[in-house]
């Protein structure tokens, strides 16, 4: 799986998106991140592993506490992909609007 695929896979789950949203407020321990979710810690750790493998977060362990934080680089990859898609579709809709406008003008000129 390439990096962009891993990013979208990671963001395709509500729990992982909630973790990302929480980390937007700053680093947090795994325990803090897991508290809102009704699941066992081993299950939650699978979400953390997917987020780490995607490169969206990083974690470091100090003593018994593992702290997670966002890594912004791979968010830029997703943003660039969305920007490219937006540019493509805006270009297509602009061309469609020009085509429709030209057809309307031709119809008006023909009808007098």
Automatic annotation (TrEMBL):
GO terms for molecular function: DNA-binding transcription factor activity. SUPFAM superfamilies: Winged helix' DNA-binding domain. It comes from the Bacteria. SMART domains: HTH_ARSR. Residues 1-92 form the HTH arsR-type domain. Gene3D superfamilies: Winged helix-like DNA-binding domain superfamily/Winged helix DNA-binding domain (1.10.10.10). InterPro entries: ArsR-like_HTH, HTH_ArsR_DNA-bd_dom, WH-like_DNA-bd_sf, WH_DNA-bd_sf. NCBIfam families: HTH_metalloreg. This is Regulatory protein, ArsR. It comes from Teredinibacter turnerae (strain ATCC 39867 / T7901). The lineage of its organism: Bacteria, Pseudomonadati, Pseudomonadota, Gammaproteobacteria, Cellvibrionales.
């Amino acid at each position: 799986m390439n990096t962009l695929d891993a990013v979208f896979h990671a963001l395709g789950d509500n729990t992982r998106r909630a973790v990302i949203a929480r980390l937007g407020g700053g680093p947090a321990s795994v325990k803090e991140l897991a508290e809102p979710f009704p699941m066992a810690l081993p299950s939650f750790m699978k979400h953390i592993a997917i987020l780490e493998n995607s490169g969206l977060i990083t974690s470091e362990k100090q003593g018994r506490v593992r702290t997670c934080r966002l890594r912004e680089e791979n968010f830029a990859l997703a943003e660039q992909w969305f920007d490219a898609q937006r540019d493509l579709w805006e270009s297509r809709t602009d061309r469609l609007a020009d085509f429709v406008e030209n057809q309307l003008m031709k119809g008006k000129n023909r009808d007098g």
